[in-house]
Amino acid sequence: MARPRSGGLLLRRLLSQLSRSAQGGATLRVSQAPAASYGTSVTSAKVEVNGVRLHYQQTGSGSHAVLLLPGMLGSGQTDFGPQLKSMNKQQFTLVAWDPRGYGKSIPPLRDFPEDFFERDAKDAVDLMQALKFKKFSLLGWSDGGITALIAAARNPTLIHKMVVWGANPSVSEEDVKLYNAIRDVSKWSERARQPMEEMYGHDYFSKTCAAWVDGISQFAQKPNGSICQSLLPHIHCPTLIIHGEKDPLVPRFHPEYLHKHIKGSQLHLMPEGKHNLHLRFADEFNRVVEKFLL
């Protein structure tokens, strides 16, 4: 499938979506609590996992536990406001985490070694086990979708079901060109830049974004640009792949590859969806996800 070619257009689309993502999550007010509770309010706490104090939010009292995994520079609060607010609290217990170096899981500072996706996957699974969830489902967006794929492949007995969107199991040279177009955050619109600077401060935001570009780009040097392609046949849980047909960041080739190589997976296309489809079309997204999970 042909990939998008206009770097300037793609950058404008990306910045627009980043801004909407930040706005979508900014409406959620999070109450601080020393530990998570199983009520309808959203509570927040930290727990030590693999030597790091990881921040998470939790809501709902359902028997079906679901972990929400955010994207690059994301957090539960910024990336999953509509899900934490509106998904069925009687059926599900929702946990949205901040990966190490993101959101409120600082320190440590974020870095991107060769195995950073594997590290995030282990942290995510170990967090849920620390919270005493014996089995749980995964909702992974973008980088969080990649993390979810790895977690499901590595822990088949722990993962009930999985939903991923905006996730790519490999990185091409064309992808690298796109990533480099967002390296310099001073070129971002103020509307897109401001929420990130409010959360992280300019220096940390700028340095971490540039480091992410280098971190994700390193996979392009691997055979077939693979991030986790070899792990896909080891995913045995029911899997739903959602793709926005107007996503300028993740061409349809990526979800089709996932669908082909994850046995029994389902592919759901959203004609008007872009990269942040779960925020822009939250009601539709939540309905599709809940139907699949139940």
Automatic annotation (TrEMBL):
It holds the Pfam family Abhydrolase_1. Residues 65-194, 214-279 form the AB hydrolase-1 domain. It comes from the Eukaryota. InterPro entries: AB_hydrolase_1 (IPR000073), AB_hydrolase_fold (IPR029058). GO terms for molecular function: serine hydrolase activity. SUPFAM superfamilies: alpha/beta-Hydrolases (SSF53474). PANTHER family: VALACYCLOVIR HYDROLASE. This is AB hydrolase-1 domain-containing protein.
